[in-house]
Amino acid sequence: xxxxxxxxxxxxxxxxxxxxxxxxxxxxxxxxxxxxxxxxxxxxxxxxxxxxxxxxxxxxxxxxxxxxxxxxxxxxxxxxxxxxxxxxxxxxxxxxxxxxxxxxxxxxxxxxxxxxxxxxxxxxxxxxxxxxxxxxxxxxxxxxxxxxxxxxxxxxxxxxxxxxxxxxxxxxxxxxxxxxxxxxxxxxxxxxxxxxxxxxxxxxxxxxxxxxxxxxxxxxxxxxxxxxxxxxxxxxxxxxxxxxxxxxxxxxxxxxxxxxxxxxxxxxxxxxxxxxxxxxxxxxxxxxxxxxxxxxxxxxxxxxxxxxxxxxxxxxxxxxxxxxxxxxxxxxxxxxxxxxxxxxxxxxxxxxxxxxxxxxxxxxxxxxxxxxxxxxxxxxxxxxxxxxxxxxxxxxxxxxxxxxxxxxxxxxxxxxxxxxxxxxxxxxxxxx
Length: 432
Hints:
By secondary structure, the chain is of the alpha/beta class. The chain has helices at 76-82, 108-118, 134-146, 183-194, 208-214, 216-225, 240-255, 275-281, 292-299, 320-327, 336-350, 356-370, 389-395, 414-425, and strands at residues 5-9, 15-16, 33-37, 71-74, 87-91, 94-95, 100-101, 126-130, 150-155, 163-164, 172-178, 199-201, 231-235, 264-270, 330-334, 380-384, 399-400, 405-408. A hairpin with a 4-residue loop joins β6 (94-95) and β7. α2 crosses α5 (208-214) and α6 (216-225) packs across α7 (240-255).
């Protein structure tokens, strides 16, 4: 399965043939690249194709096994409970009865299956991914099942999220940023690794495949309901999923069959860690980077710990600021107790558990409705970015991936990283 597309710089407007892991074109101002697909009208395939049912708008060089696509349905019970009539729930996670089988329980599988399918069959290097947890678990699962060499880097404090329903292939290695390190420290550590010969950075938000993979949530909602929603709700750590929804929205407008509206992006953060909220409320493109000591303490208290990016793609051309501005969107904040109550409400009305970050999104929707900001008849898309994890833990035997290397924050340096990677590559089981 291959897709015809080019990539375009959002600053200078130049278009390029895609290379292997092309993340930037060297423009003098930081800017995202964006995929431009030859096929302007999307024709979703059979659900048996998994994520690749939306292959018309994914940058594919191949398809790999094991994927599942998001499922969208009308949330009548939940909608009635919170006071809206036209609620689209887009569910990402594990819910076999609904036809969604993401066995890591998170929509990060959508980006992992897209990114890995962008790699050519001949790819012979080691992919490097940094994560607060969910992305690492998703990439580890996909690479393990498809024999793609991978190093994932996460904060040690999030080690408990590295669970799987099958044993992990030795081609996947885990390195932790130790002690009080957070997601940003993991990013710095991963950058050092990817700078070494034979290792390639996955690229995060700059990777067009990651964004287009997450954009399948919007594609699911719109092709199911037949129109672009008025509102889009999602919790964010980096905001990449919201950027992806915006980009998919623009393609759907160009398609011409689903209306011309732009869904208003309502993205939420878990207080007290709200750097994107704080920056947006200032009305400026400039991101206010939080004090790292204060941020680490705040991250330790939030309910949804994966929402912890201290350096999101906020002000970059084509980033979150532009997405919010273009859609008339807003950034909201949610307290722990509000999110916990929302999680209980979803379980009560829909019959399945949801991830803490999805509960933050639902809580922000509930608050907006209470404030009278949402029209009763509006089509509302609620992106449940993770769910069914508790069910997975009950029904499946779990296998935990143990770290192969550890670097504490004060020792993160090129020399230390080379030492740790050298120890890993020297082992007989290591292979690329």
